[in-house]
């Protein structure tokens, strides 16, 4: 199975990766739906919706500050690094992620499409203001405050620049992801339950346009029935083995 996956990738013309929370599990970032998943402790409808934010912005901000703090301490793992290496080898053309944790960027992936936003990015609820807290140097200050964060330009409430339930995905990211999926001859799907749309269309588009699907997951997912190769294995271990095989082929 690993051999087959390695061959598909090494011979690919335009390979892409599509990732979900499972790729960051080994970095200590909780997944959403798995055992001990985030949504078991916090009901998403209470926290990750525009309605929840209107009703109780303090609670929503408390949750996001907690997640930001947890995520900023997390480090990319072998799987994130392997994807960055595959890109520098010229095999992988892009990583499309549903994750907001920034670990692909930390690992060095250059062409990254974030379908659900980025937890370190905040935006104004009224004007066009946006801020990437890792670059503006205000992350510490932001996490230390317990009051509601205000827009430096207009004074309105700031919000996390992530996609909440019931909200559309950022149009340019989604269009770019669809365009890449149509072009791809191989998609490496890692650590996603494949049940959240429109993101879950990505591997389906690759398949429908004649490409192949390699899936890495510790469990079967919504993608497994259409996967050409399914590696039932934690992401870090699978990617390490896969990289060794690929390097032996090229
Ligand atoms: P889920 O939590 O739904 O799924 C995580 C997947 O990772 C599951 O299929 C697990 O079996 C798998 N997994 C867990 N540990 C793994 C490991 N070490 N190696 C490989 N696989 C592992 O997360 P997503 O599919 O990313 O959306 O969820 C999709 C979206 O739903 C999220 O982006 C988020 C959520 O609601 C928004 O916030 C808009
Ligand atoms: Zn503003």
From TrEMBL:
Q: Which Gene3D superfamilies match?
A: SIR2/SIRT2 'Small Domain (3.30.1600.10), TPP-binding domain (3.40.50.1220)
What EC number(s) would the UniProt record show? 2.3.1.286
Which top-level enzyme class is recorded in the Swiss-Prot or TrEMBL entry? Answer: transferase
Family matches, as Pfam families: SIR2
Q: Which superkingdom, per the lineage?
A: Archaea
Q: Which CDD domains match?
A: SIRT5_Af1_CobB (cd01412)
Report residues binding Zn(2+).
124, 127, 151, 154
Which cofactors, by name? Answer: Zn(2+)
- Its name, as the record gives it, is NAD-dependent protein deacylase
Q: Which organism is it from?
A: Thermococcus celericrescens
């Amino acid at each position: 199975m690993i051999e087959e996956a390695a061959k598909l990738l090494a011979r690919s013309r335009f390979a892409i990766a599509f990732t979900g929370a499972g790729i960051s599990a080994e970095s200590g970032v909780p997944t959403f739906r798995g055992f001990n998943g985030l949504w078991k402790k916090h009901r998403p409808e209470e926290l990750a919706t525009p309605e929840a934010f209107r009703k109780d912005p303090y609670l929503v901000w408390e949750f996001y500050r907690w997640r930001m703090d947890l995520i900023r301490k997390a480090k990319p793992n072998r799987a994130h690094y392997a994807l960055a290496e595959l890109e520098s080898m010229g095999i992988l053309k892009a990583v499309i992620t549903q994750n907001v944790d920034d670990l692909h960027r930390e690992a060095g992936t250059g062409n990254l499409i974030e379908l659900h936003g980025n937890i370190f990015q905040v935006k104004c609820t009224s004007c066009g203001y946006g801020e990437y807290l890792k670059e503006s140097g205000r992350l510490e200050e932001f996490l230390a405050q317990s009051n509601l964060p205000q827009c430096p330009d207009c004074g309105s409430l700031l919000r996390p620049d992530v996609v909440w339930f019931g909200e559309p995905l950022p149009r340019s990211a989604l269009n770019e992801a669809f365009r890449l999926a149509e072009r791809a001859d191989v998609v490496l799907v890692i650590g996603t339950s494949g049940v959240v749309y429109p993101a879950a269309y990505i591997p389906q588009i690759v398949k429908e346009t004649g490409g192949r699907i390699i899936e890495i997951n510790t469990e079967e997912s919504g993608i497994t029935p259409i996967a050409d190769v399914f590696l039932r294995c934690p992401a870090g271990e699978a990617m390490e083995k896969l990289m060794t095989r690929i390097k032996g082929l090229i």
